[in-house]
Amino acid sequence: MQTDTSSAFPGYDAVALLSGGLDSILAVKLIQEQGLRVKCLHFVTPFFGKPHKRRHWEGLYGIDIESVDISADFVRMLVERPVYGFGKVLNPCVDCKILMMGKAREMMERYGARFIISGEVLGQRPMSQRQDTLNVIRRDADVRDLLLRPLCAKHLEPTRMELEGLVDRERLLDIRGRGRSEQLELARRYGFAEIPTPGGGCKLAEKENASRYWQVLMHSPQPCAREFKLSNIGRQFWSGGRWMAVGRNRMDNTGLLKVCGDDDLVFRVRTFPGPVAVGRQFSGSPWDEVTMADAAAFAASFSPKAVRSGSPVDVRVCRAGDLRLLAEGDEHAPVPGEAVVSVMPARTTGAGWAEPLWVEAREEIRAEARDKRG
Ligand code: SF4
């Protein structure tokens, strides 16, 4: 087998798009079975990807994986809006596939790979796996002569890899449609100890998450990966363009403090146990004292003991960046520049903090699409 010795990691025949869903794994196994070496690329964004599962999958399925963070490019595509639009929720599947395929094409050289494989099945998904869409993805990602779809190859024109004899077309499959029986049968044949779910799990296709992301897209002056990570954690509340995230448990609290920006405000009730709440300060829009006090009262309402006390409680408010200056384990120490506000806990405040609703986001998305069509 010829390899490109100028590659960083030569010796691979193909790179594969690996979501971690069953189809993507089966596509890799079919090519490995032909004696070819495959490097799996597991793309990660705030919306999908499980990089922590990499080692587990490698051991379980006998595959070789690299996690690739494409958050910045993905967020840019969302901000500029996907050329081929959103699916049923906020999932830009066609643009997403084009982006991932394009990335895989760029990474081929690094591995000395000569083609790309993906686990798409003709007719399985309404948006991204129709014949015409499969062709659009192949064209726009510029992978016309590079892309092989082993699970449904026999329904498609033979590729360069098959014509040149690099891949044996006879050993590729002709799966079509939404059924799963053929994939499950194949998984059994390969002796998988764990059968993964069909897809890789994408939060953009889930309404509750999508309504959170839509707020960020609507209100942030410069949406970035960190903001979408913040919107994944805890409970989310908006008041116009103001945004608060409130932890539901210790893990959320830690997560919020980890992903919020240095200029974000952290609210913590002083004398009672309660969650961490983070107020996002978008650049150029610092919160005034009235908003801060309102948010402090709202944050305190998530501390049951503070509410039961029936009296005003102290809420500590500081910049996340200042809190980070404290030594680990010192989080109860006074924070430089911290303010303490005395407020009555209140779930209903003047600001009218509200959780984002999918029905409202959906209407805005539809209106935007109508405007775009003219
Ligand atoms: S479901 Fe999510 S990860 Fe999958 S193609 Fe669509 S946008 Fe991309």
UniProtKB/TrEMBL annotation:
Which keywords does the record carry?
Answer: ATP-binding, Nucleotide-binding
Give all residue intervals belonging to the Thil AANH domain: 13-152
User: Does the entry feature the keyword ATP-binding, yes or no?
Assistant: yes
Q: What is this protein called?
A: Fibronectin-binding protein
Query: What GO molecular function annotation could you give as one example from this UniProt entry?
Result: ATP binding
Q: Which organism is it from?
A: Desulfovibrio psychrotolerans
Q: What is the lineage of its organism?
A: Bacteria, Pseudomonadati, Thermodesulfobacteriota, Desulfovibrionia, Desulfovibrionales
InterPro entries cross-referenced by the UniProt entry: Rossmann-like_a/b/a_fold, ThiI_AANH
Per its UniProt record, what Gene3D superfamilies does this chain match?
A: HUPs
Q: Which domain of life is it from?
A: Bacteria
